[in-house]
Amino acid sequence: MAAKITRGWERIGFRLYRDGVYLGDQSGQDRPGWVTNNGTVDAYPVITVHGPCANPVITHVETGRRIDLGITVPAGEYVRVDTRPGRRTVTRQDGGTVATTSPLGSFRLPKGRSEVRWTASDPTAPARLTVVWRDVFKTLVNPKENFVQ
After folding, report:
1. 102 — phi, psi (to 5°)?
2. DSSP label at 123?
3. pTM value?
4. Four-CA torsion 100, 115, 117, 102, nearest 10 degrees
5. CA separation (Å) from 143 to 40, 43, 45, 140, 148?
6. pLDDT below 70 — which residues of the chain?
7. How many alpha carbons fall within 13 Å on the CB side of residue 6?
8. What distances in angstroms separate CA 86 from CA 54, 69, 105, 110, one per listed residue?
9. How many angstroms separate the Cα of 114 from the Cα of each of 7, 38, 108, 109, 141?
10. Where are the alpha helices (DSSP H) in 4-70?
11. Coil, strand or helix: which one is 92?
């Protein structure tokens, strides 16, 4: 289900309702999706929650790491969670910030395939979540070993 959107970035989207089949119930339970980090080290995703929904929780199933957002995302709006080093922010569509006690730096996608699951209160079913990441590779050269004096 992952598709290239720009060079080096991967994207996967999760909806409660797709292709005439409910992917869980409208209370927001059981919205699984699979991501594949084809790199050799952990990747830090950018996650977008599209409303309408309330109190979204994003979980990396294998590690148990969670991002809890105690907010309401109105219909037609989104909230973006950026877990990348140096960024680590949660922002609304209008640029306003959202407070969270979740450690954003610990939410990573390990190499290989893993499950990301999310829950939210969504009475009308159009809410969705997208996860975007870059495959990350360990460098072949250690800069300290190649220092020339």
Report:
1. -75, 135
2. T
3. 0.76
4. -10
5. 18, 21, 26, 10, 10
6. 1-31, 123, 140-149
7. 3
8. 27, 20, 9, 19
9. 22, 11, 11, 7, 28
10. none
11. strand
Q: How far apart are CA 138 and CA 90, in angstroms?
A: 27
Tokens representing residue 81 in the block:
């969670």
Q: Per residue in 123-141, pLDDT tens?
A: 677 888 989 998 888 876 6
Cis amide bond preceding 52, omega within 30:
yes
Per-residue DSSP letter, 80: E
User: Could you tell me if 114 and 35 are in contact, meaning their C-beta atoms sit under 8 angstroms apart?
Assistant: yes
C-alpha to C-alpha distances, 42 to 49, 83, 84, nearest whole angstrom: 22, 12, 11
